[in-house]
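Exercise: predict the structure of this protein bound to fructose -6-phosphate.
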Amino acid sequence: MGRFVSKHIEADYEALSEEAALFVYKRITAALNNSKPFVLGVATGSTPIGLYQYLVHLLADRRIDLSKFYTVNLDEYYPMKQTDSHSYYQYMKFHFWEPLQKANPTFEYEVQGFIPSGETDNPEAECLVYEERIKQRGGIDLQILGIGVNGHIGFNEPGSSPSSRTRVVTLSPETVSANSRFYKDDISQMPKKAITMGLGTILEAGEILLLASGKSKESIMRKLVALDKPDQSLPASYLLQHPRVTYILDIDASGT
Ligand code: F6R
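Solution:
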């Protein structure tokens, strides 16, 4: 298969979210209609919230049997209690899993939604178990990604190896600062570590959809699209090694 890269520029966040949801919906239903399972790699953060809203709406049709639909998250803070409102577990429950289950009860998030545990005493073992879970499900069919202002994907910060697997990482100062907005800008309250899928794990997904929205992403997106080979200081640039990547940006992020 040849390399397929597609870049869509949408007018604004709303249009980006709608386009992205339709993209994901088509992939999910194409598999499920052929009685194949579908594993969707999901991201948290501000960017995919609109996508999830639209996607729930599209999947609300109860004739769609979601019993073979699975989600696997990119990352979770460490340490982090599942019940903590800042956890990515709660984010997923609130923005996607519960609304989807309510709209279409053939999806049961407690069985079909996977996210690394931020409460384990043995994070290294958790990382291995997580990789194994993905493998047991047959791998990720489509991975949704946001991008950090420093070019991270998942929590693979600059310097991450392209062959890295799910592991415990220390968040970069840029990431701690960017995400402290969820902690009323109090950096001292922000977790400094996370469990993240590795770049190697992400690059094994069958297809990748990267979303970027807003002026804060303009500078990193300009750098990313200007590269013709991966650069370790910009982790998202390893997507250049993947055969099937789609970017959906809004005008602000694209700088056009
Ligand atoms: C989230 C994740 C991160 C975010 C990135 C962008 O699970 O893995 O890589 O996608 O930090 O975050 P937002 O969308 O909040 O700008």
